[in-house]
Structures are given as structure tokens and as C-alpha cells.
Design goal:
- The protein is of the alpha/beta class and 230 residues long.
- The protein has 8 helices and 11 strands.
- Strand 4, helix 6 and strand 5 form a beta-alpha-beta unit.
- Helix 5 runs parallel beside helix 8.
């Protein structure tokens, strides 16, 4: 029995936006009317942890009301025929809920929290989080989110996954956020690359993509149909 071809999928905010997840930030650098430096940096957390907790509590509550869309579901369906690895910049769990099994979260996970002292002490968490909450180590907890200025712990893992890609698919991301955007350079030159994004025409890259200029909920099923049936 032959091994399945490996499809590596890099997903960004565009695939989750169609499920009702707020995109990371708008053009003037605000996220839900907050400066990203107040709610998405270690300095912001140190300065006002209550504000940061309230911000992520709202995001967590929102996520629990959202469902995977047809883009997420189509990627999960691909696992029947391919070895699918999803590398996501998103902090939601919509890929998991859609049924995908191999997911690397570069920027953390909203439904998890971790110790402020031991980054490897990670807990599942669906409730609101406050400055009074402590982990098993007795230290306060924080959102399990990679903030600006912090290392991306799983980037090396993502590089190794991308190196072995037989097909690369980029969905709903501008390819402007590093280090995630740099992953495409690790695929072999002759690997087919697909870009699914309604704004694909404005995305510049030194790599040749076959473009599907659609939203994820429409474009991913089109890609799946193409890859399965030609």
C-alpha cells in the first residue's frame, strides 16, 4: 500500500472569519477597539492583567458560539485520501471541531491557559480567567497565546512539516505575518502551491501559486474537488 501524499495547509484569519471569529486586527492596528500593545504583548499583561483577561474571556465566549464552516469541513474530508497537516495562525479550535487530526497551532490556543512561570504547564480552559486563578504549580495563569515579542515555540516543528510537503495550500492569510509567512520557502521548488483567498491578486510572492480567488467556505471545497477529481 502506497503512502498517502502529504498536503500541508497554512491557514490564517480568513478561514475563521466566515465562522464569525473576529479577525486579528484592522488597518489602524486595533483589535476590538483595543491597541494590540495593550492586549497582545507581555508588557500589556504585566501592566493591566485584568484588561487582558477580560479581552480573551470575550474572545473565548465568542468562539464557543461559533461553528466550523465548509472550508474547515472540506479540509477534514481530505484526510480520507491524503496525509493532511494543518499549520494554523489561528487560535480557535474550529479545525479540531471539523474533524482534522493533525494541527499545529503557531500562535497558541484560546481554549487553553498556561502557568505564568512554566510555559509547559498548559490546561484546557473554557471558563472566564481572572488574576485570582492559579495553576497546579501555585502560580497565576495566563492565556495560552503567543503575544507580540514572544518566541513562536512550534515554528521549528512547522518547518519540518512543511519540508515534507507534496502539495502546499495557503488559505485566508496575507502571507505578511512572520515567521509563519516564511514557511513557504521550505517547500521544494517543484511542489504544487495553491492560494485560496478573495484578495489573492494583491498578495505578492516569489513563489508561483495556483490561485483560487474565493473565500475559504467556497474556495476550499473547489480545491478539494480539483485535487480529488482533477
Amino acid at each position: 500500500m502506497m503512502d498517502k501524499q502529504r498536503i500541508v495547509v497554512l491557514t490564517g484569519a480568513g478561514i475563521s472569519a466566515e465562522s464569525g471569529i473576529s479577525t486579528f486586527r484592522d488597518a489602524n492596528g486595533l483589535w476590538e477597539n483595543h491597541s494590540i500593545y495593550d492586549v497582545a504583548t507581555p508588557e500589556g499583561f504585566q501592566k493591566n492583567p485584568a484588561l487582558v483577561h477580560d479581552f480573551y474571556n470575550q474572545r473565548r465566549r465568542q468562539l464557543l458560539q461559533c461553528e466550523p464552516n465548509t472550508g474547515h469541513l472540506a479540509l477534514a474530508e481530505l484526510e480520507k485520501s491524503f496525509d493532511v497537516h494543518i499549520i494554523t495562525q489561528n487560535v480557535d479550535d474550529l479545525h479540531e471541531r471539523a474533524g482534522s487530526s493533525k494541527i499545529t497551532h503557531l500562535h497558541g490556543e484560546l481554549r487553553k491557559v498556561r502557568s505564568t512561570v512554566n510555559r509547559n504547564l498548559i490546561l484546557d480552559w473554557d471558563n472566564d480567567l481572572s488574576i485570582e486563578d492559579k495553576g497546579p504549580d501555585g502560580h497565576p495563569l495566563r492565556p495560552h497565546i503567543v503575544w507580540f515579542g514572544e518566541d513562536v515555540p512550534k515554528i521549528e516543528e512547522a518547518v519540518e512539516i512543511t519540508r515534507k510537503a507534496d502539495i502546499l495550500v495557503v488559505i485566508g492569510t496575507s502571507l505578511q505575518v512572520y515567521p509563519a509567512a516564511g514557511l513557504i520557502q521550505y517547500t521544494d521548488f517543484d511542489v504544487p502551491r495553491y492560494l485560496i483567498d478573495p484578495n489573492a491578486g494583491s498578495i505578492s510572492s516569489t513563489f508561483a501559486f495556483e490561485v483560487i480567488a474565493e473565500n475559504a467556505s467556497t474556495g476550499v471545497p473547489l480545491f478539494v474537488k480539483k485535487i480529488l477529481h482533477g
